[in-house]
Amino acid sequence: MALDADTLKQLLDTIRRFVDERLIPLEAEVDRNDEVPAAIVQQMRELGLFGLTIPEDYGGLGLTMSEEVQVAFELGRTTPAFRSVIGTNVGIGSQGLIMDGTDGQKRRYLPKLASGEIIGSFALTEPGAGSDAASIRTSARRDGNHYVINGSKRYITNAHVAGLFTVFARTDPHSTGASGVSAFLDPADAQGLSLGIPERKMGQKGAQVCDVMFDECRVPADALVGENEGIGFKTAMKTLDRGRIHIAAVSVAVAERLIRMALDYAMEREQFGKPIAEFQLIQAMLADSKAEAYAARCMVEETARRRDAGEDVSTEASCCKYFCTEMVGRVADRAVQIHGGAGYIADYGVERFYRDVRLFRIYEGTSQIQQLIIARNMIRAARK
Ligand SMILES: Cc1cc2nc3c(=O)[nH]c(=O)nc-3n(C[C@H](O)[C@H](O)[C@H](O)COP(=O)(O)OP(=O)(O)OC[C@H]3O[C@@H](n4cnc5c(N)ncnc54)[C@H](O)[C@@H]3O)c2cc1C
Question: How far is C-alpha 52 from the chain's CA centre?
């Protein structure tokens, strides 16, 4: 449900202050310690950030897509690891349940996800199945009133703190593609579920990923998302569709922050007797970044608006993820260049963002996969 204008403004103002006063000052520390302080996570709970997209009936704010991207524009102005704390509950860790879960499943888990009492993780990727997600081999065998899950999942965000996993597994052992896949709600304390050690990553320090292993992991039959087997792959794709617009919005916010940092530096740093901002080659980098970030912001807002209006925005969501995540990579590269040697030195923070944004082009569908989705949809539409 859409918030009234005053409530939305109040929410955005509160998040803006939280980002400026609490999160931005901690960026270097989070990068150094590879951890978001517990006090910050608690404040995020108190601000209701874990429940941004969870329906009001289940204790969340039930933001529309347009409202969600406005929040992402604010939260995205700081190191992406902070957003990652709430990112799975707001996105991939709750949306499958919201879209396709039963009432009972929603009542059981959504209030806890909305309050941040538990963290939700999304476990699709496997060692042998990344972009080709329909080829997953994790299996779920029906055994009386239970399913028994076997397999392993790779690079699962927030797995180390998760209370609930949405796990994708093959219920039809004879199938090889999307149709034999089902989704399950698997509590972290289920017998037979174990975690790998957190991976060392290029950037986004403070956000953790690790493997999740299932060894004869028994879950009750009602852990199946929805009531039918075989719809899990569709659940995963719908979840990722929404997430793509969100990641695109975060990319816009990081780009705008980097442009501000680059502009400030260019106006202050002097070479050849004047601020480097007066050199036209520097101006070209600033202008290219500004124009691309503006185009990205507009496409995200437009796609969100059309999704809220009930349109199928699969193509546009992929356009947003593709363009915005590639755009912020270019902007980060130019920001480093404008800072010269300082851009390569940790104290200035630009190199940290340069590392952080690299991930946006890889997870929740790589740039190449977005290109394939866009082209496939174009061809399908032309054949109609
Ligand atoms: C930090 C991090 C967090 C993550 N969090 C999660 C999570 O919470 N849950 C989850 O399930 N997964 C998660 N992932 C996994 C992520 O979604 C995958 O890494 C991603 O989808 C790519 O899969 P892959 O790594 O197997 O690469 P691959 O699929 O092996 O791709 C390798 C390269 O080949 C290209 N490629 C593949 N197929 C094609 C094709 N048909 N045409 C052209 N090019 C192609 C890709 O674009 C890429 O450039 C995370 C990954 C990372 C690094």
Answer: 13
CA geometry: angle at 201 spanning 138 and 300, to 5°? 80
Contacts of 37 (CB under 8 A, 6+ apart): 26, 29, 30
Nearest to 81 by CA among 139, 30, 135, 9: 30
Under a CB-based contact definition with an 8 Å cutoff, are residues 75 and 253 in contact? Answer: yes
For residue 367, the CA-to-ligand 1 centroid distance in Å is: 10
Per DSSP, the chain holds a count of helices (H) and strands (E) of 12, 9
329 CA from centroid of ligand 1 (Å): 17
Which atom of ligand 1 has the smallest separation from the CA of 364?
A: 17
Taking the CA of residue 192 as centre, how many other CA atoms within 13 Å lie in the half-sphere pointing to its CB? 14
Q: What is the pLDDT of residues 240-294, one digit of tens each?
A: 988 999 999 999 999 999 999 999 999 999 999 999 999 999 999 999 999 999 9
Low-confidence ranges of the chain (pLDDT < 50): none
Q: What is this structure's pTM?
A: 0.97
